[in-house]
Design goal:
The complex is a heterodimer of chains A (144) and B (402). Chain A is mainly beta. Chain A is 5% helix and 37% strand. Chain A has two domains: 49 residues, no CATH class; 79 residues, OB fold (Dihydrolipoamide Acetyltransferase, E2P) (Beta Barrel), CATH 2.40.50. Chain A contains one helix and eight strands, in the order αββββββββ. In chain A, strands 6-5-4-7-8 form a five-stranded antiparallel beta sheet, covered by helices on one side. In chain A, strands 2-1-3 form a three-stranded antiparallel beta sheet, covered by helices on one side. In chain A, a hairpin with a 2-residue loop joins strand 7 and strand 8. The radius of gyration of chain A is 16 Å and the shape is globular. Chain B is an alpha/beta fold. Chain B is 35% helix and 19% strand. In chain B, the strands form two sheets. Chain B has a ten-stranded mixed beta sheet with strand order 3-2-4-7-1-8-12-11-9-10, with helices on both faces. In chain B, strands 5-6 form a two-stranded antiparallel sheet. In chain B, a hairpin with a 2-residue loop joins strand 5 and strand 6. In chain B, helix 6 crosses helix 11 and helix 10 crosses helix 11. Classes of the chains: A mainly beta (144), B alpha/beta (402). The interface between A and B is large, with 46 and 44 residues. The complex binds zinc ion. Zinc ion binds next to loops of chain A.
Amino acid sequence: MSADTTHEPRRVLPRFPELDTEPFWEATKEHQLRYQFCEQCETVIFYPRAHCTKCTNTDLTWRTSSGEGAIYTYSVIRRSQHPSFMDMVPYVIAWVDLDETFRMLTHIVDVDPDDPESGLTIGARVQVHWIDRGQVSLPAFHLA
Amino acid sequence: MTRQRVAIVGVHEFPSRHTHGSITPLQMKAQCAARALEDAGLSWGDIDALYDDGDGINWPGFYMPQYFDLDLKVVDTTTVGGSSFEFHVSHALRDLGSGRASVALLTYGATARSSQTSIGTGAKYSEMGPPNPISNMEDCWGPTLVSDYAQFAHRYMYDHGVRSEQLAEIAVTARYHALRNPDAVRAIEDLQLRPGSREMTVDDVMNSRMVADPLHALDCCIISDGGGAVVLATEDVARNCRSKPVWVLGAGESVRYRRNVDDLTLTGAARSGPAAFGQAGVQPGEIDIAMIYDSFTITVLSALEDLGFCAKGEGGGFVEDGRLRFDTPGLAVNTDGGGLSSNHPGQRGIFLLIEATRQLRGTSTSQVPDARLAVAHGTGGTLNRTHASGTIVLGTEPGDRR
Ligand SMILES: [Zn+2]
């Protein structure tokens, strides 16, 4: 578990019932990063939904990602007034492009954002890094 | 049926930025509406179309007609954040232009400062209402409004070569204009805006605290109270109004959002801009004043490029050396001081329309000589995750009947 998440008062977690995202979060308990695929038109769907956004198929397949990708963009949040995040600053929030061609919002953990040698850059390769939080595991990433 | 030309005939901007609980958003909306109607020489009974984004009360389609006591033919409650008001004018152009109604009212009122709303860094994203698939995938990472625009800015700088010092120039120009606007000068004092009542420098911005890399505190809009109203009318009404009509020549709308495998740096302005310019029959190069939503410095730079005032990647040079000032040749931008230095109660799209109207009437505090064409471009939501872009082209002459 990464050091930057140990002193949280109460982490914001997904809430249920929420039928679109429940299968995604259920799989995180097994440390599986899942995304949806339309077999009819070969479109990747993310975030989870119950319909293909390209064709009219409403029966999507769940696939498991390798958990490998690259940072599309990121920011170091140095000020937050949210009670669950204000003590976590500075933390690195990012869009990560997974190799399976879906983009997700996440954190880059186990990195000092103020160390110029850290390797934290746009385009850097990353690997999923699970943060266990009871009912779910949060898919953060660390530099590969 | 012949299409009617449509004009802005009344505007009012609430003067104070810090009201200390002395007025509610609803009261502010009504006061501004009354002043804007007086500006036009009209009254409440003339209004038959109302546009409201719900900033004063939930379910505005029910409650705003009642609060104002109006008999309406058109009610429109499009809610797309700070760009709502550009969407409203776009819809008013459609509704008045087709003859469904003849006088339209838009109002805004918010007391973000007095109620100490943490717009930029606060908790507004989390645990509001029942969960949905977006909140369930994103709230757990603690994004703030600033970090959303910061992620966008970071990729923008990476792809298009813009530098932080160039973004800072946009904030410097906003303050330059604010210092000429008495209401903004009072805002600088009332809200104790840094660096105080003097011109801002690029160094001031670069040395201000980093809120979310690469955005500094002075790259971010202020948080104020504020309100305003705009009255529009068909040509036959406008010709008899007290004020000089400012004609709505074109309108465009777009909504864009996060997608897999997508160029995040392309904003909705790339669609709303050409639609508005095309309807107006004008080119970006002909525009005298651009009122561009400035939630953050990057919001302005990306919009200038996507609206076609310069090519993608050329915005950094376009904004340097005070080129956006009212008293330098070329395009003048945010001549009231903008959200960066005059007022930003949360959704400032109505102020873009008000200042563009002042310029075309010749009454701005940073007046561009012989101003004939202006653009108001609103950006609502966040460029990083989901946003709306609304572009309105305004002119002193009615143009063709389009
Ligand atoms: Zn499909």
